[in-house]
Amino acid sequence: MTRHPQPPVPAAPVTVLRGLLLDAFGVLDDTGGTPGATPVADAAGALRRRGVRVALVSNVPGPDELPTAWREVADTVVCSGEVGVAKPDPGIYRTACARLALPPAACVFIDDSGGHVRAAVELGLVGVHHRTVEATLAELAVLFPGSGRTAR
Questions:
Q1: Model's pTM, two decimal places?
Q2: Which residues of 20-53 are buried (b: 16+ CB within 10 A; e: fewer)?
Q3: Which of 2, 27, 28, 109 is the most exposed place for a label (fewest CB within 10 A)?
Q4: What is the pLDDT of residue 148?
């Protein structure tokens, strides 16, 4: 029996995640049970210091509706009232990715609304449905390896 070598299977292209899109209310305001804590915002700030681009994406009229501390962890803030589309419309995610100068496939979107996460995933982003601070921080640690410890 003659054995013929099998051709190598081409590796799937790997997309490096370089962007993080965050919902504000329901995610950044989740204290994880510690009054005054901002664990997800702190993790986003740590990722940003390591080169991950960060956008806040919110269905509020404008950035003044968001606490200054949250705006400071982001490279850009995308508010539905300013861009004319609201989550889950794909246009708001496209706008955020464009402002970060990244394709959707290079970005993670975190929101406490499953419908908003599904819409972002349909556009090509990696989606994380925020349910608890611990679970979200664990997801960030997996999605952005080597970016430092993001979980408590």
A1: 0.88
A2: bbbbbeebbebeeeeeeebbbbbbbbbbbeeebb
A3: 2
A4: 47
